[in-house]
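Example 3.2
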Amino acid sequence: MEIQQLKVFLAVAEELHFGRAAQRLHMAQPPVSRMVRQLESDVGTDLFVRSTRSVQLTAAGVALMASAKDILAATDRAKALALAAGRGEVGVVKLAYAGASTHVLVGVLAREVRKAHPGIEMRLNSQDFALPALARVLRGDVDVSLGRWDFVPAGVKARIIVEEHLVMAVPASHRLALRGEIHMEELAGEPFVALPAHEGSVLADRLRRLSLGVGFDPDIVQRAPDSWTAMALVGAEVGCSLTVSSVAENVTDPHVRFLRVLDETLPIYLRMAWRGDSENPALPPVLALAEQVWPS
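Structure, written as tokens:
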């Protein structure tokens, strides 16, 4: 059983006509007929019922059709992998990301890598917060990280993927829920839900800057382990929560409303970071593709 025989068989099986199959394959009809007869001889049974008026698949032909498609698809994948290996486009790239919103961006990149570089495997690692993701790049545990950092250390290269704006998540029952925008001073005395105030937390920094800038300390009544939990607590009317615009775009809880914060503060950027001295040969093709998927 040869690959060309399977290609000819599939063409005839799909067209149910030897002449049309020959045209589709850019072959003369006699070689098509000979290949099908040879394949039937190899498998030991008829694959088609032929008459002067029609061509129909036998039960054996129907059974072979699915397997033939799988074999040809596997052959195509093997060729693609071999070509990728010849270009050096094989290996593993580990990517860590943080936040309730970055999973959509990561999915887009992973899908495009599979299409363009089938020899490269993307291993995705979700982190609750951005700093641990950056630390993993520094240690060499992962090749790339996505996160919101105000600064990146020496030896790490980074570029901006998205500039985001701050929004305040409030319960749908909140007195200001129908507003599209808000000033921070309007929330003085309100209970807040916040993420853990670890060093380098961008949202914790902005909440502190904004609230102190208008003369109050935020009353943090509960800390959430991640953005998804924070939004659930807002929906449960525990308090308000400062977050970023991409979270608002990805959370669909009908019990939560998002209001743009109008107060001026430092910008927030979602960045992509990697080690400048990485020796992973699979990383440059992924970085190049990321530039196309997420243009600066």
